[in-house]
Design a protein that fits this description.
Elements: E1 24-26, E2 29-31, H1 34-45, H2 75-81, E3 82-85, E4 89-95, H3 102-108, H4 111-114, E5 118-124, E6 129-135, H5 141-150, H6 162-165, H7 174-197, H8 204-225, H9 227-238, H10 245-264, H11 272-303, E7 309-314, E8 317-322, E9 331-334, E10 344-348, E11 351-354, H12 356-359, E12 365-367, E13 372-373, E14 378-379, E15 384-388, H13 394-401, H14 417-422, H15 425-440, H16 445-458, H17 462-481, E16 484-486, H18 490-496, E17 500-504, E18 510-521, H19 525-535, H20 541-550, E19 558-564, E20 568-573, E21 576-581, H21 583-586, E22 597-603, E23 606-617, H22 621-627, E24 632-636, H23 644-647, E25 657-658, H24 663-675, E26 680-684, H25 690-695, E27 698-703, E28 715-718, H26 725-757, H27 764-792
Helix pairs in contact: 7-8, 7-11, 8-10, 8-11, 9-10, 10-11, 10-16, 11-17, 11-27, 15-16, 16-26, 16-27, 17-26, 17-27, 18-26, 19-20, 26-27
């Protein structure tokens, strides 16, 4: 007896493969594997299942393997692609051409819900980059790329380092869409000429025929050239977001429906020329905007660089060079608390590296000789020597500076001026558009539709939305050219609101160059060598001054090394215990001496004397403090009040100067000012002031040709530009004024355009031409105005 068995095959709802093994079922839908089910769950939980409406099975199976990515199993190739790796996690940055809307951002930043091995995901929408931190024990780089490909976001991988070179995306089809729209627009205009000049009665047949041809030309424009507007509007609506693409998509749809109706039903010419012209001009404006943003991004990452330098060793001589000139093969020295600027091999010294900037893990990691140490780590022990194996990636430092680990939760999270205004624009626009339609509908439906369409087109929010980013981008460029490096555009608005300025003394208003050192220490040559060998590991201004005074000397190996913030250095070298610092650290007590800044020396518990320093104040400090008199100005110093009388010529109020301040005391002082609703800018050297810089509304780290990169600050100021500080502050206020004026210009344009559009007499084509012109006007105004006020402030 033969038993026939019927096997019913079920296809996966996500990828379409047969569910031949264990089936995963949810919402009465079948999935072939857990991966496909997980992707659906994430999309479903956030109402993004419209993802499946574009195709029956748009996803790729999570269970399959793609031979195209086998090369990602090669260790040599992996090392070229990743940004950082350690025993537990790997960080990598991918270029994702398919990123195009807020839904893309949301889905990509939810990868940890699809695969638990992913710890962190952040998208840079402008650059279409995705930064991912993942557990490489649970998920390989190849599997990560497959995961991204399966959900529709395949990375564009190039071993030519496409991320950091900022190459133009090869997968972008905007130019092709413009070409299609332009071709159709030209032909529709040609076929519409008979209607423009009038047709005699016996030519009407040709007019009808041309109308049908025009409809055919509009189809590729609507379905291909303008597709992104419909996709973006639909996905954002599904995600409960009303973005600026919605009124544009609605206007295009209404024009197309009206044109088809006019031609097929009423035998009128329709609005095919208007529709094709609208999409063509929209895409042209989009291309101009994209190219401008690309230029801004390129300039920000490469033409400007942080004023950090590193010391290279050439023929046993230390020479400071800027990071832009650091090359593979250079031998560099990294001191205590300095950032490692490039991937390098450890050659000499004991490396205790804090990778919290990269991984969020604050526990220092010990590295052995010959081991690769990745860029972004901070050395927490003695000075180490390394050989660079990869060039510096400035975009990586930018990414590091904007790491979420340095976002301050206690800060005012109020929205920018642009964010406050723009979020209401689309809602108001839709109210006016539908109001015009309903107003004219009872008496003249055709006129109501004309008004409805014209309102949606003429009141494009592009000009309104672009005023802030283009003004701020121009401002950032000007700041960069003057060696003042801001973290992002938001800092400009925050700086304009500052009313209180707090300054550190040593390394901030003083400079390490030209200071006099008086030797009051009874040291033998061997003891001087010990002191030099300890101080050479530090980047504190006083340590650098002592090294210049004592050196150069042969550096001895340090066995133990510790810097006590605000006090000094404790070290063990050649079996000798050395303490270098203030009285509290060295002697354990304070004296009544108030005559000078001193650094005391203690070797093997024997007090050896001190070095006395006469500081050189920065050029133009008196002019700076005079020009800043409209701000509340304070001085916080960790030193004793030795120089209080001399400082009175800069800070007129003795009560505004606080001395003998610990790092915690500085932070508390800033916090107290903020409790009184004061907007505080802290200016420090980024060493002992890191807490205060982070607490303040704006933290500015001043640096003098040292590798003092401070991610916890909002800006880095080259010491040579310190005298321009008043001009920087006034320029930030001027930039905000430019934004306000550009908003008024945009608002005036919209009010004028809308007042005519609601009458139903404004041609949609004229509206489509005026729209990009208004955008160009705003961009030109903000750019030229910003450069004009920069010249007025002598910043150009």
């Amino acid at each position: 007896m033969t038993e026939n068995t019927v096997i019913s095959k079920t296809t996966c709802y996500h990828c379409g493969d047969d569910c031949v093994n264990e089936q995963y079922i949810i919402d009465e839908k079948h999935f072939c594997c857990h991966g496909c089910k997980s992707v659906y769950e994430v999309l479903s939980a956030n109402q993004l299942c419209s993802y499946y409406s574009y195709n029956d099975h748009p996803g790729a199976t999570q269970a399959s393997t793609d031979k195209r990515f086998d090369y990602l199993n090669e260790p040599g190739i992996i090392s070229e692609l990743i940004d950082y790796t350690d025993e537990h996690v790997t960080t990598v940055t991918f270029y994702i051409p398919n990123i195009h809307c807020s839904s893309c951002l949301w889905l990509l930043e939810q990868l940890n819900k699809i695969n638990q091995a992913v710890h962190y995901c952040r998208v840079d929408f402008l650059k279409k980059q995705l930064n991912i931190r993942f557990d490489h024990h649970k998920l390989s780089l190849k599997q990560l790329v497959e995961l991204l490909t399966n959900i529709g976001y395949e990375p564009l991988i190039s071993l030519q380092d496409i991320i950091k070179k900022q190459n133009t995306p090869t997968g972008d089809k905007l130019v092709q869409k413009i070409a299609v729209a332009g071709f159709c627009f030209g032909n529709v205009m040609l076929l519409s000429f008979p209607d423009y000049f009038g047709l005699s009665s016996y030519e009407q047949t040709f007019g009808h025929f041309f109308g049908y041809l025009n409809i055919l030309f509009t189809i590729p424009v609507v379905l291909y050239s303008s597709r992104d507007y419909f996709v973006s509007a639909w996905q954002n609506l599904r995600n409960k977001v009303l973005n600026i693409d919605f009124p544009l998509a609605l206007g295009i749809a209404v024009l197309f429906i009206r044109s088809v109706t006019e031609v097929l039903v009423n035998h009128d010419p329709g609005f095919s020329d208007t529709l094709c012209g609208l999409v063509f001009f929209l895409l042209i404006g989009k291309l101009v905007q994209k190219k401008t943003y690309y230029h801004i991004s390129f300039e920000r990452d490469y033409r400007s660089f942080f004023p950090v330098a590193v010391h290279i060793i050439d023929n046993e001589v230390e020479t400071p060079v800027s990071l832009s000139k650091l090359e593979t093969g250079h031998r560099i020295i990294i001191r205590h608390n300095e950032i490692i600027p490039a991937d390098a091999i450890l050659l000499k010294g004991e490396a205790m590296v804090d990778f919290s900037f990269v991984t969020g893990e604050a526990l220092p990691v010990q590295k052995t000789l010959g081991e690769i140490i990745y860029a972004g780590g901070r050395q927490t022990g003695e000075a180490i020597e390394m050989e660079v194996i990869k060039p510096v990636s400035q975009s990586y430092l930018t990414q590091l500076w904007n790491n979420e680990a340095f976002t301050r939760q206690q800060r005012d999270t109020s929205q920018t001026f642009n964010e406050k205004i723009s979020k209401y624009f689309t809602v108001v626009l839709l109210i006016i558009a539908f109001g015009s339609l309903f107003f004219w509908m009872p008496t003249d439906l055709k006129r109501g539709l004309a008004a409805f369409t014209a309102v949606l087109i003429v009141a494009c929010p592009c000009a309104l939305a672009l005023s802030t980013p283009f003004t701020m981008a121009a401002a950032l460029s000007i700041f960069d050219k003057n060696q003042f490096y801001l973290k992002n555009t938001r800092v400009v608005e925050q700086m304009a609101a500052i009313d209180t300025i707090v300054m550190d003394k040593t390394g901030t208003i003083t400079t390490g160059e030209g200071n006099t050192v008086k030797d009051n220490a009874a040291l033998t040559e061997y003891e001087k060598q010990l002191v030099y060998s300890v101080c050479v590991n530090s980047i504190h201004p006083l340590s650098r001054m002592m090294c210049r005074y004592l050196g150069p000397r042969e550096k001895q190996s340090v066995e133990k090394y510790e810097e006590v913030a605000g006090q000094g250095i404790l070290a063990t070298i050649d079996n000798h215990k050395v303490a270098i610092g203030n009285e509290l650290l060295v002697l354990g007590k304070r004296s009544d001496s108030r005559n000078a800044t001193k650094v005391l020396i203690l070797i093997d518990d024997v007090y050896c004397g001190y070095f006395e320093f006469a500081h050189q104040y920065r050029n133009g400090l008196d002019k700076v403090t005079t020009l800043l008199k409209k701000y509340k100005l304070f001085l916080l110093s960790g030193d004793r009040d030795y120089e209080q009388q001399e400082l009175l010529r800069f800070f007129k109020d003795p009560g505004a100067m606080q001395f003998d301040q610990s790092p915690q005391a500085k932070l508390d002082f800033i916090s107290d000012l903020q409790q009184n609703r004061q907007k505080v800018m802290m200016i420090g050297d980024g060493l002992n002031d890191s807490g205060a810089l982070k607490q303040s509304d704006i933290g500015v780290a001043v640096t003098d040709n040292v590798n003092n990169f401070t991610p916890g600050s909002d800006a880095i100021l080259d010491g040579r530009s310190f005298n321009k500080l008043p001009a920087f502050l006034q320029f930030s206020k001027d930039a905000v004024k430019v934004i306000h004026i550009s908003f008024l210009i945009s608002l005036s344009y919209n009010l004028f355009g809308l007042s005519y559009a609601v009458t139903g007499k404004l041609s949609p084509l004229i509206a489509a031409i005026l729209m990009p012109l208004s955008t160009a006007t705003i961009i030109a105004f903000t750019t030229f105005s910003t450069h004009f006020i920069a010249k007025k402030r002598k910043l150009l």
